[in-house]
Structure formats: structure tokens, C-alpha cells
Write a structure and sequence with these properties.
The structure holds 2 protein chains of 2 kinds.
Chain A: H1 2-26, H2 38-59, H3 64-70, H4 76-115, H5 120-141
Helix pairs in contact in A: 1-2, 4-5
Chain B: H1 2-10, H2 13-31, H3 37-48, H4 53-78, H5 89-98, H6 102-135, H7 140-157, H8 162-176, E1 179-180, E2 187-188, H9 202-221, H10 240-262, H11 267-282, H12 295-318, H13 324-335, H14 342-347, H15 349-381, H16 385-402, H17 407-425, H18 431-453, H19 460-463, H20 465-488
Antiparallel strand pairs in B: 1-2
Helix pairs in contact in B: 1-15, 2-4, 2-15, 3-4, 3-13, 3-16, 4-5, 4-6, 4-12, 4-13, 4-15, 5-6, 5-12, 6-10, 6-12, 6-15, 7-8, 7-18, 7-20, 8-18, 9-16, 9-17, 10-11, 10-12, 11-12, 16-17
Classes of the chains: A mainly alpha, B mainly alpha.
């Protein structure tokens, strides 16, 4: 837990430092006429300082015991989350090629399968029904336009 | 007189239908884990483009308070809160179900919610108009101090580590500055990404942090959907003894919920916890709470409903959203060209009173609908989460896409989903992040405007009575939070 927290805090520290320097580049202005970077500078600095203090606390392992006690390991379930996240990233890439309808259908097939649908027929049927219903509701009724891919649909 | 006109608007068929759809969807959302009211409101936002602004507001608000009703059902029958504001209801509600008293538990949750919901609408009606008259005179210094007080409250009230809350608050602030600067019109922190010119959207942020993250956490937990209680649901009407035990809790919960709902970051979740704590304090037999005491259900369920009415006050009066759900509602109003704030009471009086009228109607509708429909909701509960979650993911994707017709927003929501999942695992609260993100641009604008007006003097924040009062309150909250640290030493 402490190690994972450490990674998150370092990420927050980097974001804070990044915003602080970018604010300086944008210009702080003065108190008479604050610039675009005035408040963002202090917010970035605040984030960096809070992350630094937190990092120090983590190093000193003040919360190690509490963290270890609350840690839960899920093993395969965590892998399932990672697989779904990867599938969602792949989905974003696929939409530009295959368009919204086909890519979303493929994503749904994957998700239903991960969810525990055993038979392919029921998986495909569930995905088809879901995508058709959402098309009817959002495209036909609400006139929402889903993105088309290179294939033209 | 205005209220009568409000009822007239609320009873017009399109508005009545919008209210019905809102409360039914809200109840459903409250029941289903993995999709909260914020995600559901964002999802149904495109529908409001097709209807009038007042019908849109009525429907979206219906989802919000409908979800508060729905959340209690899963807490009582399955020991899993369908909605975060119903977490506390599990403690006594599930115990009552185990003792074969699920009926009275569900009944008192519905009646308590109805009473509290109605009381909070009366409060909203009585407080909003006079407050709006005061708020008309608020300038940038008052707004700056008030929003700072809001941020301090959020960080203090969300619980957990203050340091983690601070980090989340600052992160929300810096993210809110991405996009065009409202005062100069120049881009900042876009890092060359064209899509960031319009800023990071609130919908992808909420869909990610609350929608996707919730799905991931539920998937990780696996198939612990819980066993639905096979209990007698016929005795839904609480007995006289039940009423005697819970009527005080209902009124106390209503007061706590309404007051905390008004505070930035307060809202339904914290109100329910505070109400439960209060019941423990006032009870002659505090040991009963947690073992199936009906007041342990009545208090928190009343509080979370009353908080909804309270949270509309800062939105309607000051144009300040106090939580994520209200922020999305505000977004919906802005899309319709209506800016919430003191002007709403003068320029769009029909919308305000129509909305107030609809909340009375909606609360009554929920009571009438909910009790007979409980067996149906139980059937929906039996659908395994592994079948539901692909549909929830589909809704989240469409919800994130639909506001700007942008796949970039979908990608952003996935990124925030992954981030939100990590935050949940490491016990970081997302609420300060969201609130700072919502309030950030207004804080920035009001600070800069104040300093320009005062020619660089910070005295402007302490020389105006309301501004000074907000700042003093903020400092008092900080000092109060430091007391336990000094005591330990």
C-alpha cells in the first residue's frame, strides 16, 4: 500500500511542479493586476508542498501499519480490472477505424464474456440487443450522432 | 400565490411526465450499484435538450431525490448501499431485515424520506427568496471568501486524511484552470492539445471518477452481490410503536440534512452520517443502534432526502453548486441559457416556482410509487452485477460522449476512471477534487477582480462584512480541526 501510495504522491508532486512552472511562464502579474498564472501558481505550489509533506510521511512510514492492515489483495479480480481498462483503451483506438457501432458492439461482447456469459450465442445476442436499444434511444429518438469510422458507418 | 403558479406548472402534462421519469430513473439508479445520480443525470442530459428547461430541471432533480429513496432498498435487503448516501442505512436496516422486519424498515425509509423531502422543499421556499435579496449585493470579494469557505468545508467534512484532502483539493483547482482564461480569453495549461482549449469537461471527470471507478471497484470485489432477504414485505406500514420511535429521528434528520445540504460539500452523504451520529447521542439506549433500531433507518434516510432540498439553495440563490450532482444540474441549466443565481428569482420566476412545485409532487409520487413497486425493485436487484456492468459501461460511454459529441471526452473519462480507481484503492476522497474543480474558475475570477478593484489591497476581503464573516468561519473551521492534534500532544 505504502509503495503504491508513494507512486501516486510522486505523480501528484510532478503535476504540481509542472503547473507551478507553467504558471511562471504564463506570468503571475502583480497584486494590482494579477496575471493568468497568479492563482494557478499558488495552487500548483500548494499541491507540490502537500505532496512533499505526504511523501515525507510515507517515507517515515507513519501510516504503514494502518495501510498494511487495510490492504486487501484481490489477485485475479485486479487482473480483470486491468483487462477491462486495456479493452477500453483499445476501444478508443478502434472507434476511429470501425466507427462507434461496431467498436461498441465488440467491446460489449468482451465485457459480457468477462462478466461470465458462457455461451457465444447469448453473449452476441446480449451485445446486439444492447447496442440496438441504445441506437434506437440515442440516435433515432434523441438525434445523437455517433462517430463513423473509416468504413463509413 | 407564486407556489400556486408553481403547482400549475408542475401539473402540466410534460412536466408531470418529466417528474415521473426522473423519480423512476432515480429510484432505479439508487438501487443499482455502480451508477450514481451524477452519472445518471449526465447520461440523461441529452434528453433535456429536447424538452423545455423547466421540464429538464424537474426531471434531473427527480433523479437526484429519487436516488435517495432507491438507495435504502439495497441497504436494507442486501446490506449493500445502492448509493453512497445510504451506507449508514445498512447498519440498522439490514439488521431489521434479518429480524424479519424488512417491511417496516422499507416503510419508514419511504415515509421518512417523504416527510423530510417535503420539509426541505418548504425550507427551500422560505429561505431562497430572502437570501436571494441579500445575495444580489454580493460582489467578487464575497464570492471569493464564500468559495474559500466552501473548499475548507469540503476538505474538512469528507473525512479521512486532511493531507490527502488537501492534495485532492489543489489537484481539482489546477485541473480547473485548464482551458481559456475567462478574463483574458487566452489559453492556459492546454499543453498544445486543441481539445483542452474548452477546458476539461465536468461530465468526463464525473463519469470517470464516479462512473468508471465505481464499476472497476465493483468488478474487483467480485461476486459478493449479497443475498437478498427472503422476508415478508407485506407489513410495509410501520406500527404505532415504530412511529413513536422514529418520528423524532425523522425531524432531527430533516434539520441536519437541510442544514448540511446548504453547506458546500455537505450534501446527502455527510448528512446521513451526521444524522446517525446524532441519533446515537440523543438516544437513551445508544447500544440499540446497530442492532436493528428503526430510528437508525429513519434518521439517515430523512437526512439524505432533506439534504437534496438544502443543496438547491446555494445553486438557486448564489449560482454556486455545492456538490457534483448540483454541478451537472447547473451545467444543464446553462446549456438552456439559464444562469442560476439571484437573477433566476427575478428573470425566470416560473422556472424556480415550477421546480419547487414539482418537488412536492415528486416526493408524493415517490411515496405512492415506491411502496407498491418494492417487489419489482427486488426483482431488478436479483440481476447479477456481471450482467449489469457492461450496460453501465455502455451508458457511461454514451453519457460522456453525448454532451460535446466527442470521443476525446470518452477517452478522458476512461483516464479519470483509472485514476479514480487508484484513488479509491488508496483511500483518497474524490469529493474535494470535484468541488475544487467546480469552484476553481469562479475563485480565480473573483480573486483577480477583487484585487483589480481594490488596486492590489487584500483589505477588500476583510473590510466587507459578509466577506469577513465567511473568512472568519473558514479560519474557525481550520482551528477547530487542529484541536485534536494539540490535544494528542
Amino acid at each position: 500500500m505504502v509503495k503504491r501510495e508513494w507512486i501516486l504522491i510522486v505523480t501528484l508532486l510532478l503535476i504540481g511542479v509542472g503547473f507551478t512552472f507553467e504558471s511562471l511562464r504564463l506570468g503571475l502579474g502583480g497584486v494590482h493586476r494579477p496575471g493568468m498564472g497568479f492563482l494557478p501558481f499558488y495552487a500548483g505550489l500548494g499541491l507540490s508542498c502537500a505532496a512533499l509533506v505526504s511523501l515525507l510521511k510515507t517515507f517515515l512510514a507513519v501510516e504503514r501499519e494502518r495501510g498494511a492492515a487495510s490492504e486487501k489483495t484481490y489477485g485475479r479480480s485486479s487482473l480483470r480490472v486491468a483487462a477491462i481498462l486495456a479493452a477500453l483503451v483499445l476501444y478508443i483506438l478502434l472507434v476511429s477505424v470501425f466507427g462507434f457501432m461496431i467498436s461498441t458492439f465488440l467491446l460489449l461482447v468482451f465485457l459480457f464474456k468477462v462478466g461470465g456469459f458462457r455461451r457465444w450465442t447469448s453473449t452476441l445476442l446480449a451485445a446486439l440487443l444492447s447496442i440496438s436499444a441504445s441506437y434506437l434511444l440515442f440516435c433515432s429518438w434523441l438525434s445523437l450522432r455517433f462517430p463513423k469510422g473509416l468504413l463509413g458507418f | 400565490m407564486e407556489l400556486l403558479k408553481g403547482f400549475e406548472i408542475a401539473f402540466q402534462f410534460p412536466n408531470l411526465f418529466a417528474c415521473f421519469i426522473g423519480v423512476v430513473v432515480g429510484t432505479l439508479v439508487g438501487i443499482l450499484p455502480g451508477i450514481g445520480p451524477s452519472a445518471a443525470i449526465a447520461l440523461l442530459l441529452p434528453i433535456t435538450f429536447k424538452i423545455t428547461p423547466v421540464a429538464g430541471l424537474i426531471m434531473l432533480a427527480g433523479i437526484y431525490y429519487g436516488a435517495m429513496y432507491g438507495g435504502s432498498l439495497t441497504s436494507i435487503l442486501v446490506n449493500i448501499p445502492g448509493e453512497a448516501a445510504s451506507v449508514v442505512t445498512c447498519l440498522d436496516g439490514y439488521q431489521m431485515a434479518l429480524q424479519g422486519r424488512a417491511g417496516p424498515a422499507l416503510g419508514i425509509a419511504a415515509f421518512g424520506s417523504f416527510i423530510a423531502g417535503t420539509l426541505s422543499v418548504i425550507g427551500l421556499m422560505l429561505v431562497a427568496v430572502p437570501l436571494a435579496n441579500v445575495a444580489v449585493n454580493f460582489g467578487p470579494p464575497e464570492y471569493f471568501s464564500l468559495l474559500c469557505l466552501g473548499l475548507i468545508t469540503v476538505i474538512q467534512l469528507t473525512g479521512g486524511s486532511v493531507l490527502k484532502g488537501l492534495m485532492m483539493g489543489f489537484l481539482g483547482l489546477v485541473l480547473s484552470f485548464v482551458g481559456l482564461d475567462t478574463m483574458t480569453g487566452m489559453p492556459r495549461f492546454t499543453f498544445g492539445v486543441v481539445e483542452f482549449m474548452g477546458g476539461i469537461g465536468i461530465i468526463p471527470l464525473i463519469m470517470g471518477l464516479f462512473g468508471f471507478a465505481e464499476v472497476f471497484v465493483n468488478i474487483e470485489r467480485g461476486e459478493d452481490q449479497g443475498q437478498i432477504m427472503k422476508t415478508d414485505l407485506k407489513g410495509l406500514f410501520p406500527s404505532l410503536r415504530d412511529w413513536k420511535d422514529s418520528i423524532g429521528a425523522i425531524f432531527r434528520g430533516s434539520g441536519v440534512g437541510f442544514f448540511l445540504g446548504v453547506l458546500p460539500g455537505g450534501g446527502a452523504i455527510i448528512s446521513s452520517f451526521v444524522s446517525y451520529w446524532l441519533e446515537r447521542k440523543v438516544s437513551k439506549h445508544p447500544e440499540r443502534l446497530g442492532t436493528g433500531a428503526i430510528e437508525g433507518v429513519a434518521g439517515p434516510e430523512s437526512a439524505n432526502n432533506a439534504a437534496v432540498g438544502g443543496s438547491f439553495i446555494p445553486l438557486m440563490v448564489l449560482g454556486i453548486p455545492t456538490n457534483a450532482v448540483i454541478a451537472i444540474l447547473m451545467g444543464a441549466l446553462l446549456i438552456h441559457g439559464i444562469r442560476p443565481g439571484p437573477g433566476l428569482m427575478t428573470k425566470h420566476l416560473d422556472i424556480f416556482w415550477g421546480f419547487v412545485g414539482s418537488m412536492y409532487v415528486g416526493n408524493a409520487m415517490l411515496l405512492i410509487l415506491n411502496l407498491p413497486l418494492i417487489p419489482l425493485w427486488v426483482q431488478i436487484l436479483k440481476v447479477p452485477y456481471r450482467i449489469l456492468f457492461p450496460l453501465i459501461v455502455l451508458f457511461i460511454i454514451i453519457g460522456a460522449y453525448s454532451v460535446n459529441n466527442s470521443m476525446f471526452d470518452v477517452a478522458l473519462s476512461i483516464v479519470f476512471g483509472g485514476f479514480g480507481y487508484v484513488l479509491r484503492r488508496l483511500k483518497f476522497e474524490a469529493a474535494p477534487l470535484i468541488m475544487a474543480f467546480i469552484l476553481g474558475p469562479t475563485i480565480d475570477e473573483s480573486l483577480r477582480q477583487s484585487l483589480i478593484v481594490s488596486q492590489g489591497s487584500f483589505d477588500i476581503f476583510v473590510s466587507r462584512p459578509f466577506s469577513l464573516a465567511f473568512l472568519v468561519l473558514g479560519v474557525a473551521i481550520i482551528l477547530y480541526s487542529l484541536v485534536p492534534i494539540f490535544r494528542r500532544r
